[in-house]
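Now read this:
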Amino acid sequence: MRIKYSKLPMLRNLTNKEMDFFLYIARYQDLAGNVPGVHNQDVCKHTGMCKQSFYTVLRSLQKKGIIEYRKCSEIDYDIHIVDNDFSYDGAFQEGYINLHRKVFHRERFKKLKANEKYLLFELLKRTHENRSSFRIGTQKFYENWMGALGVTKRVIRYYLHSLRKFFSIGIKQGKYYITYLHSVFNQKEEKTIDEQEFDYFVEVQCRRGKIKFTSEALHDTGKLLRQYRPGIVRQGGTLGELKRIMAQCIQTSIQGQDQRTRHLNSKYIHKLMQTALFEEIEAF
C-alpha cells in the first residue's frame, strides 16, 4: 500500500494499463514488496483490461525494471515490486506515498490518465502529504514537467485542470501555490494495511487449494497472522515463516476432502497452527 518516493520516477510515462496494473498489485504487497498469487482474472476484473493485456503488461513492467515475476502455479504469478522494500530499519523515513486511502479507489482517481496519476503522486510528495503547500514559479513548473513527461505546455495545463479535484491550485505573482486537500485524502480504507495484506494472502491459498470461503472465514483466518506474529517474532522467527506455516495448515485442513465440498475452516486451521507453531518454536 506504499510507494517509495525514490520509486516514483519509474512510473513516469507508463501506459494507462501499466499504471492500473501496478497500482492494483501495490495494494497487496508485503513490507518487502512481494505480492503472491497474482491472478489474471482478478487483475482484469478490477482494472477492466483483457486477458491478453494482462500478459502484455506483466512482461512490459518487468522489461522496464518495475517488477519481477515468476509463475508460481498453474493459475497465478508471484510478483516482486523492485526497489520498494520497507522491511529494513529506516525505510519508512525515506518517504513514501500512502495508498491506503479511499480516494484511490474512487472513480475520480481511476479516470485519470497514467501521467496524471504520476503527477498527482509527485505533488503529494512535494506537499509532504498534508504538511505544507508547494510553491514554484509557473514557468519553471512547466519547464520541469514538459521535459520530464515529453509533453507540451498545453498538456501540462490539462493535467493540472484534472488535478484540481485533489489539490488547491492557485497562481500569485507568477508562482503556483499547490496545497493538499485534506477533505480528499484523509479518509482511510476500512481495513488496515495488515488486514488487507493478510486477508489477501489467505485468499491466494484458497484459490490455489480450490477452497471455497466466506468473507467472515477469510477475515478470521487472516486474524491468526496478526495474532501470532508478535509471538513468533519474539522467538526469533519472521512473518514469512508464519505465512509458510499458515499455508501448510490451510492445505492440511482440506486433506481427504472432495474438491467440491472444500471450505475454509478458520477454527480448524487455528488448531493446526497452534500445534505447528509449538513444534516450530521448539526448533528455534
Remarks:
- Strands lie at 2-4, 34-39, 67-71, 76-81, 96-98, 133-137, 167-172, 175-180.
- The chain has twelve helices and eight strands.
